[in-house]
Amino acid sequence: MNSQPSAEGRADFARAGAAIEPALLLENVVCTFPSRENPNGTYCAVSDTTISIAEGEFVSIVGPTGCGKSTLLNVASGLLDATSGRVECRGAPVAGINRHAGYMFQSDALMPWRTALENVVAGLEFAGVAKREAEDRGRAWMARVGLSGFEHSYPHHMSGGMRKRVALAQMLILDPAIIMMDEPFSALDVQTRQLMENELLDLWSADRKSVMFITHDLEEAIALSDRVICLSAGPGTHPIGEFVVNLPRPRNVAEISHSPEFQRIQREIWEVLRQEVLKGYAQNKK
Ligand SMILES: Nc1ncnc2c1ncn2[C@@H]1O[C@H](COP(=O)(O)OP(=O)(O)OP(=O)(O)O)[C@@H](O)[C@H]1O
What we know:
Elements: H1 7-15, E1 24-34, E2 42-53, E3 58-62, H2 69-77, E4 84-89, E5 92-93, E6 101-104, H3 116-120, H4 122-126, H5 131-144, H6 160-172, E7 178-182, H7 190-207, E8 210-214, H8 218-224, E9 227-231, E10 239-244, H9 253-256, H10 260-285
Parallel strand pairs: 3-8, 3-9, 6-7, 7-8
Antiparallel strand pairs: 1-2, 1-4, 4-5, 9-10
Helix pairs in contact: 5-6, 6-7, 8-10
This protein binds adenosine-5'-triphosphate.
Adenosine-5'-triphosphate (ATP) is lined by residues 33, 36, 43, 45, 63, 65-71, 216, 234.
């Protein structure tokens, strides 16, 4: 699309994100849970976290195991109320499920009794779109994710990568303004994973949605994103670094990691993350 800004332009946009109304804003978010160890105590998973994602920006959030990445995504999606702080999507407070958002999680949520096409159109059906129209749109999306001819296959007859494609189409057919993904490709083998990451980038660059992408994989975060936010180890996770990724697009995730600029960013982020990963690892061993 010729209206898209250049890589530099997007990075400037990302830096200026705070000045323009963001697609998603988490401001001074705190999340406290009842403690699992002490029945009278609490556990502070997230402390004083402010994250803003601009319209059309792809932002990854990385951090040590168990630090609170999914908790932040759950708050942004409205699945979980923050203990305190503000959550806004496109300028409006998020109350209940965030209707501007589409979701994709580590395990796909395909309905095994429905064919691939029936899964893809499920959201449209629930929204009351006529069956004929829903199926036409569903077929078009099956084609966009490379699954023409598999409309009548059931999820259990499909590979992990194919099921992810169905899940992508199922989410994108609803045309969400912001996409929230929680380690969506972590269960896939390396080759399939890279194919899916490239697939995601192709789809993203065509429609340029805002993306909040949770991962513990630094390479994946850099290869996909305009910006990477690093979280500290818990308890009380919070952002400890933010890195603009100015690598040119379109990107091939298998190749881009060889570029000197990629490796420079990776070293810079790892410098910030290393201590936190060690802390997280030590905590998980306890
Ligand atoms: N409902 C809950 N009650 C108590 N503690 C919880 C609850 N949900 C999450 N936690 C704790 O909050 C912390 C953050 O969890 P969260 O799942 O957000 O981390 P994560 O970074 O996504 O983990 P992972 O890297 O394993 O995906 C963890 O210590 C977890 O045990």
